[in-house]
Amino acid sequence: MPTEARFKRVLVANRGEIAVRIIRACHQLGLETVAIYSSADKGALHTLLATHCLCIGPAAAKDSYLNINAILEAAKLTAADAIHPGYGFLAERAGFARAVTEAGLVFLGPDADTIATMGDKVSAIKSIKAVGIPTLPGSDGALNDDMNAVEALATDIGYPVLIKASAGGGGRGMRRVDSADELASAIALTRSEALAAFGDNTVYLEKFLTHPRHIEFQMLADGEAALCLGERDCSAQRRHQKLIEEAPALGIAREKIREMADICEAACRRLGYRGVGTFEFLYQDGAFFFIEMNTRIQVEHTVTEMVTGLDLIAWQLKVALGHPLPPRPQVQGHAIECRINAEAPQSQLPSPGVITQLRVPGGPGVRWDSYLFPGAMVPAFYDSLIGKLICHGVTREEATARLRQALTELEIQGIAINKSLHLQLIACDAFQPWQRDIHFVDALSAPGV
Ligand code: ADP
């Protein structure tokens, strides 16, 4: 059993639905909470639910939710002894994990070195390959200026190839290349975009898969033992950003999934991984290829919760408190999540505003994770995710039917939401797991379709 530091008061270094979710889990475990907020989030649900709350700065994220000094100062002022980073903001900044630990607090995530290795895609692929996880054919390292060698490699792998920024994230920093004459300019463009967006122009090359599914494995580990809590299918993406996720992933042989789960567990043990984490893969023609590891709780952890009956945030906290891992859960039924965003249906531009009316769905197998209430403000400054609608059923058909009804019932006024897109997606033929690939949503919205 690991000898972790104990803690009693958790500062939640985040906002929105995930801050609410973490606060609920802490309270259920008898832990106190500290909510931090920017001036744009005054009166937000997470601040109302927490034991203590503190304004840490103005609306701009760089001055509040990304301001490490202000967050550590808030922890000191409120005598918090642990920090939960949630997802986004500082969750995968190694420097933040290090600063938290150096301040004598428990960081609820893996150690800073692991975050740094996995946060840089080139070093992540190297370390993942070393622990036996299959990767895509590619440059296996950063590209240098030797264009002859890069061209030879691309020809060898076969077009199309993908140029990716090592520091990329959020579906940004990648460019498909279909022939040798586009290669040099694609590398130059991706480099300059990566430098502007991530402050790092390191790029690498890998095979572009034309019709893969995005399948990921949820891990929970304590530095020694590791447990795979099953897989999720996140192929419903728009411009490489996830929209709908589900568990389990149907249409893939269960033996193949079990084999990958074993490989992921062995990899966690060899890495000495601690906390929750996700190995992301592309799956095409019967084979899995690693694309990246997320060293934090993910938005879509909820579908795994619905089919395993485990509270992943509670387990994240319990493992950090020194509890042994739970027994291997049985996967029961099927769960699907729709990400509800505040966005205009046509332009897809963010739609901030005050919630004037709210009607949330209910009934068996229906879960609504959100920070909204009538009168709540959806600020313009942050991610447009305002809630997650998750439905569970004995079968995928039942989960989908519940989702259709729940989406129909959901009514939010004061802002625009992407409800019609979700209703359209779950109704289309390509939504069937065995028919789809990661391009199906973009293909549906392509002109003329
Ligand atoms: P990010 O960190 O930006 O999320 P990922 O490496 O996880 O980047 O990739 C995001 C998405 O981009 C994947 O889910 C997939 O849709 C697409 N993608 C990434 N790599 C490839 C590839 N080699 N071939 C085809 N699509 C890819």
TrEMBL record:
UniProt pathway: Lipid metabolism; malonyl-CoA biosynthesis; malonyl-CoA from acetyl-CoA: step 1/1
Domain Biotin carboxylation: 6-446
Keywords, sorted A to Z: ATP-binding, Biotin, Ligase, Nucleotide-binding, Transferase
Reactions performed catalytically: N(6)-biotinyl-L-lysyl-[protein] + hydrogencarbonate + ATP = N(6)-carboxybiotinyl-L-lysyl-[protein] + ADP + phosphate + H(+)
Listed PROSITE patterns: ATP_GRASP, BC, CPSASE_1, CPSASE_2
EC number: 6.3.4.14
All residue ranges annotated as the ATP-grasp domain in the record: 125-321
Purpose: This protein is a component of the acetyl coenzyme A carboxylase complex; first, biotin carboxylase catalyzes the carboxylation of the carrier protein and then the transcarboxylase transfers the carboxyl group to form malonyl-CoA.
Name this protein carries in UniProt: Biotin carboxylase
Organism (species): Shewanella amazonensis (strain ATCC BAA-1098 / SB2B)
